[in-house]
Design brief:
Layout (H helix, E strand, L loop, with lengths): L8 H7 L6 H26 L5 H12 L2 H11 L3 H26 L5 H19 L10 H29 L9 H26 L2 H8 L50 E6 L5 E4 H5 L4 E8 L10 E10 H8 L7 E6 L4 E5 H5 L6 E6 L2 E2 L9 E3 L13 E7 L22 E6 L5 E2 L2 E10 L5 E8 L5 E2 L1 E2 L9 E9 L2 E11 L21 E7 L1
Parallel strand pairs: 1-10, 12-19
Antiparallel strand pairs: 1-2, 3-4, 4-7, 5-6, 5-10, 7-8, 7-9, 11-13, 13-17, 14-15, 14-18, 16-17, 18-19
This protein binds ligand MTE and molybdenum atom (MO).
The site of ligand MTE has 19 residues, from loops.
Length: about 525
């Protein structure tokens, strides 16, 4: 029977009038939810955009998702997987909020069940932010604001709905019927302004300006110029260097970590003689070296697109490790990103000057784009990204394999993951129709660390033929190829296979990406005529 401690008889009376319409009750829940999320989002914009409870819960969901489901999502939605997750979360939350609102109006004995449920949802947001290693305690203010907004706005809206309903039932005139309309509209507008304001603020502040201030990064030792015949882009291969905006992107970060260069530092510790810490200025002032490297993701399916090439500029990781002094017994370089993602690299790969592992601060002459790790990341030739390419890297611990287990290692991927030799047909595309007669088949091959010796191509059941290779830039980069065939009209199949400079030809055996990279030959079907 009790209402929320309100004393005005006008408030108490209508509460006895019983239920509001289900649609109005649902709207109370939905509006309270939207207001809560928007308020938290706005506060987070001032503290740290990653403290937004909505994003934090989404990130928490990604980390808790079982590996098989994650693989399926990446396979099914590709680079849209995050948008799909956010949209899915929105649908679930809206339905829950509507149900909370309706449930509350049905169990009209007190407003508490709804408020308790809303508080519980709010606590999930608080927990998700608290779980992030990159956020300090102050960041909890954002989800706490959401929680508070939810528990305050929800009962207010419910009460307004009941008053409107009661006014209508009594045949009361004019404005008293519109209490709910006004309250609802007020909350909706407030939420819209807060949400939009938060989005604008977090979008322009901080890291973007910091990146612009870094300006162009010029290496003391530039990479060799890329020869004109390093790609056959005119014949349908990718361009040799991948423009930053087209470079593949793979990470677990729902909101790109926004780190200011001025606030970034890198700590090197663990099994070392001297613990070291570097600021961005420390790194930038060193002798910078540029290397042309082809990166590949272990999740790249045969024929897939998670492979790209750039000129990376930075300092030798081996130099930094030498300054720290790696102790005997060290096995693993365990790196941690500001968002808590971790990677484990064999120490011999990270510390070997001949391999050329980089702590990179620039990509194709520009500071790293935010989504590729600004202000600093690791890039190690020859290893799949999950064991080598930590973006937004902030901590390097020299340790053993037993002491620390990295993010994907805990999720069934292999401890060691050198990149496997692969090749791909880019032209024609699968299921293309081409004119009959002479056609050009073109593509790309890679065998980082070993180099490509030849690529063979087979049309239908004809014998293998060797393709023409592009100029070799270095053994750590991909190589383009092309070949001409004469095709009669009808359906056809073309397959490619690469052989590395150690004489190993890609195996025909198809294995999936888990645990250490896919194998098999890429085949596409097309039609001539
Ligand atoms: N912080 C962080 N770094 C990361 C990842 C990640 O999820 N988080 N993913 C890794 C993986 S699996 C790959 S393949 C490369 C991809 O780098 P790119 O997005 O710049 O292409 O980044 C690596 N570095
Ligand atoms: Mo990856």
């Amino acid at each position: 029977m009790a209402d929320t401690g309100s004393t005005a008889p006008a408030d108490r009376e209508p509460a006895r009038e019983g239920r509001v319409r289900a649609s109005a009750a649902a709207l109370c829940g939905v509006l309270a939810l939207v207001a809560a999320l928007a308020a938290g989002h706005l506060v987070a914009a001032f503290l740290n955009p990653n403290a937004s409870p909505y994003l934090a819960v989404g990130n928490g969901a990604i980390d808790l998702t079982p590996a098989w489901l994650k693989d399926w999502a990446v396979r099914t939605f590709g680079e849209n997987d995050k948008a799909v997750l956010l949209a899915g979360m929105a649908v679930v939350l809206l339905v829950v909020a509507a149900v909370v609102g309706i449930g509350d109006s049905v169990s009209r004995r007190s407003p508490w069940p709804g408020v308790v449920l809303i508080a519980a949802i709010g606590l999930v947001g608080v927990a998700a932010v608290a779980a992030r290693p990159d956020l300090t305690g102050a960041a909890l203010v954002a989800p706490a604001t959401s929680l508070l907004t939810g528990v305050v706005v929800f009962p207010l809206l419910c009460r307004a709905a009941r008053r409107s309903r009661a006014a209508k039932a009594e045949g009361a005139p004019g404005s008293s019927r519109r209490v709910f309309l006004r309250a609802g509209a007020g909350v909706a507008v407030g939420a819209g302004v807060a949400g939009l304001g938060g989005q604008l603020l977090s979008g322009t502040r901080d890291a973007t300006a910091s990146r612009a201030a870094v300006g162009a990064v010029r290496p003391a030792i530039p990479a060799a110029p890329i020869p004109a015949d390093a790609d056959f882009a005119k014949l349908g291969t990718p361009s040799f260097l991948t423009p930053n905006k087209d470079f593949y992107r793979v990470d677990t970060a729902l909101a790109v970590p926004r780190v200011r260069a001025e606030e970034w530092s890198l700590r090197i510790h663990g099994l070392v003689d001297r613990e070291r810490r570097y600021s961005f200025a420390d790194i930038r002032e060193r002798r910078l070296v540029e290397r042309t490297i082809t990166m590949t993701c272990v999740s790249n399916e045969v024929g897939g697109s998670y492979v790209s090439t750039a000129n990376f500029t930075g300092v030798d990781l081996a130099d930094l490790l030498r300054e720290a002094g790696v102790k005997d017994g060290a096995q693993q370089l365990f790196s941690t990103s500001v968002d808590g993602w971790t990677s484990g690299t064999p120490i011999e790969a990270a510390a070997d000057p001949a391999r050329g592992a980089l702590l990179a601060i620039a990509m194709n002459g520009e500071p790293l784009p935010l989504e590729h790790g600004f202000p600093a990341r690791m890039v190690i030739p020859g290893l799949y990204g999950y064991v080598s390419a930590t973006k937004w890297v902030t901590d390097l611990e020299v340790t053993t394999w037993r002491a620390r287990q990295s993010y994907w290692l805990k999720r069934n991927w292999a401890e060691r993951a050198p990149i496997k030799t692969q090749s791909r047909v880019d032209t024609p595309r699968g299921f293309d129709t081409v004119p009959e007669g002479a056609i050009r088949v073109a593509g790309v091959a890679w065998a980082q660390g070993r180099g490509i010796a030849k690529v063979e191509v087979r049309l239908d059941d004809q014998p293998w033929r060797e393709a023409i290779l592009s100029a070799e830039v270095n053994v750590d980069t991909w190589r383009m190829w092309w070949i001409e065939f004469s095709v009669p009209s009808g359906g056809h199949r073309v397959t490619c296979r690469a052989t590395d400079r150690e004489g190993q030809t890609q195996t025909e055996d198809r294995v999936g990406t888990v645990p250490d990279g896919a194998t098999g030959w890429h085949t596409i079907n097309f039609t001539a005529g």
